[in-house]
Every structure is written in C-alpha cells, then in structure tokens.
Amino acid sequence: MKKQNTQDALSTVPAEAQASATEDLDSAWNGVVGRRTFLKGVGMTGAAALIPAALTTTGAMAARKAALTDGDVAILQFLAAAELIETDLWQQYNELGGVDGGNVSYQAALSNLDGDMPQYIADNTDDEMSHAAFLNAYLKSMGAEQVNLDAFRTLPSSKATGAQQIGRLTNLQKLNVDTSWYTRYRSTQNPDFGTTFPQAVTIKNEPAIPLNDTETPPGTSQPVPPDSTAASRMQAIANTAGFHFAYIEQGGASLYTSLSLKVSSLEVLRIVVSIGGVEVDHFGLWHDKCGNAVAQPLAGVTDPETGLTFPDLNAPPFGGEQFQTNLILPEPASFIRKNLPPVSVIRPSLTENAGAVATIESLTADLLFEGQTPQFFTTVMALARAADAAERQAH
Ligand SMILES: [Fe+2]
Ligand SMILES: [Fe+2]
To answer: How confident is the model at residue 58, as a pLDDT?
Structure first.
C-alpha cells in the first residue's frame, strides 16, 4: 500500500526521473506514514509533493485533464513548486521587513535603499502567494495533481524580533548571492552563447535577514552612514537582501521564459507568460532598488562580522557600462544568432541555463536550501526534470 502511494505521488514524473526519485521517497515515506494517515481524511498528503488527483478528481475534471498534455502538467507542477519556494522566502522577508513587519531596524535599513521598500516587499509577497495558489487551483480544476511541499518545512526561523517561529522551506541566514546577473544585463553578450559574467559584489555566507536581537537589536537607529557596529551589520544584511531580491526575480524571469517555449495548450501558455511577466516586473523593481546599496550616499557599508563591503559601483575602479547603477534596463545583447542585431531581451532563456533544473541548481548554490533533506532535493529535482523534458505539441 505504501509503495502504491509513492507511485501515485510520482505518477506525472517521467520514468527516468521516477527511477531515482522513488527509492529516496520510499525512505522518506516511512517517517511520515502516521502523518499521512492522519491527513488522509481531509484529502491531503503530508509527505508527497504531489496530491494524488484521485482524491480530488470529478468526472468533469478528468475530461478537462485530457485537454492538458503531460508536459503542460509537469510545467505547471514545477512552477507551483517554484512559487511555493518563492512564497516561503518572501514571507520571511515580509515578517521582518514588510510594511507590517515586526523588525523596525531592519525596515529602517531597507528603507535606506528606498523609502518604499517595506511596501514593495509586502506586495511582492502577496504576488508570490497568489502565483502558488493559482497554479495549484488551476491544476486541481483540470483534474491534475497539486503540489504540496509542507513536509519539507523543517528549516529554522530567524530568532530576531518579528519572525514567526515556524518551520521554513528556505534558509536566508547564510547566502552566497550570485550577482553576475547585474553585469550580465549590462553586457551586450548573452549567456546562451556561453559567455560568463563577473560578480558585481561578491556576497558569500551573508545573512539576508537579521539573525537575532543580540547582534542587531531591533531598536537600533539606522543612519546613513551607519554609526555603530550593530547598525553596520544590519545595513549589510539589508543590502544583501536587496541584491537577493533581484537575484531571485531575474531567475524567475528566465525560468518562465524558458518554460513558455515548451507549453502546448494556449490556456497554459497564457498562464505562464502572464505570471512570467510579473516576475520580470519584480526583477526590474529590485534591480533599481539594490543599486542604491552601491551608490552614494549609502555605498561603502562594511559588515563587521564577515568583512563584506558594498563598494560605490559608480566610482573607479568600477563605473562605466558594466557597473553604473542607473543602467537598469537590459542592454541590447546578442540573441538567437550572432549575425542578427543586438536586442534588449530576457536572458538566458535556453533550458540548460534558464530551465527548471538550472533554477534549482542555482538556488542550491545560493545556499537557499541549506539544511534541507536529501528527499527535498530528490523531489524538487524530479519535478524539475519532468518540466524541462516537456515538449511543445502544436494542436
Ligand atoms: Fe512568482
Ligand atoms: Fe517572483
């Protein structure tokens, strides 16, 4: 019976992905059978990422499911997982630094980047919640399996004032933030032709949320420039968050672009490009705001704990096309074929650089999943491989 349930949970994942995923999920399953048994009565599965359609499917839904290809279902399921992950990280930012957040010093440090930062954080969080809820509701309406990552909400919360003490999917407490998107979008070169790009700021092992009230007391004032060790630490954390916001959302912009090319149904395509457009909007917003961490008057903050410095990217040895902070619109770049004229586009968009697997690998390198179980990685990578394997079928 347990074996059958595990197979149900992976029934929309291609055979090659199932082979590696099933073994790991079997071991994960043993630890959560009790929970699953408890939840069965309300039609939920605690351990599996996918809620079996058999529990929710009506005759009409089954008919609609026939209208979706397996590839479209896989794309929607991976995007639902990605949006649950986005929601989890944005909720952590929102609890502490959003407009109704609970950490006044963090809000103040974020507001040094832009006075509207707390409002934008709250709105971005709302957007991600709506993305996740809509994608799962659409899957259910079509008789397909929804995605549920609740079993993996095991990571610790920040101990700082404002943070709820609940299990998290993601870890914002020690990030390696890849900032090469900053130089990539200022370049005329395209990563889909193999070009690599330098970091704008090298952010290693840096928190993006306050960790506790000892090193960053929540009542500390946050003048520019910071006037105490605690204020410098909090400003470096807020600056890191600013770059992390843009890193997350540029990834979403590329991911949706990449997966849109594999969609078969026009209705699913409408969903993917319409949500994807909002990821681009988020990216553009955060790209503008995080530049204020590396421009006057805020530039020059050093984290007293890690030594990380946010330089002035408008001054030597930086500045110019590759670093100037107000060059936030995508520079025209090579695209499709190098003998075509440069064009301002989202990039990368090829599967190997922008697809679902590339996205999970990038978020893993970011240390966003630090502390997660092997079963978590097995589950999200199975969903990612299935989405990347989708092929567009013209009707
Ligand atoms: Fe989203
Ligand atoms: Fe987003």
So the answer is: 54
How far apart (Å, rounded) are the C-alpha atoms in residues 290 and 242? 5
Residue 267 has pLDDT above 70, yes or no: yes
Percent of the chain with pLDDT over 70: 84
Residue 295 has which token pair? 């421009």
Beta strands in the chain (DSSP E): 50-51, 146-147, 175-177, 203-206
Report CA torsion sign: 206, 207, 213, 218. positive
Do residues 68 and 122 lie in contact, with contact meaning Cβ atoms separated by under 8 Å?
Answer: no
In degrees and rounded to multiples of 5, residue 51 shows phi and psi of -85, 120
Residue-wise pLDDT for 116-131, tens only, equals: 999 999 999 999 999 9
Rounded distance from Cα 224 to ligand 1 centre (Å): 32
Alpha carbon of 83 to ligand 1 centroid (Å): 5
For residues 198-216, average pLDDT: 98
Cα–Cα distance, 189 to 192 (Å, whole number): 9
Q: How many CB atoms lie within 10 A of CB 337?
A: 7
pLDDT range class, residue 9, cuts 50, 70, 90: very low
Averaged pLDDT, 1-18:
36
Give the pLDDT score at 192.
98
Report the 3 state secondary structure along 137-174.
HHHHHCCCCEECCHHHCCECCCCCCCCCCCCECCCCCC
Neighbours of ion ligand 2 (CB under 5 A): 249, 252, 279, 282
> Tokens 């059978």, residue?
33
Calculate how far, in angstroms, residue 360's C-alpha sits from the geometric centre of ligand 1: 15
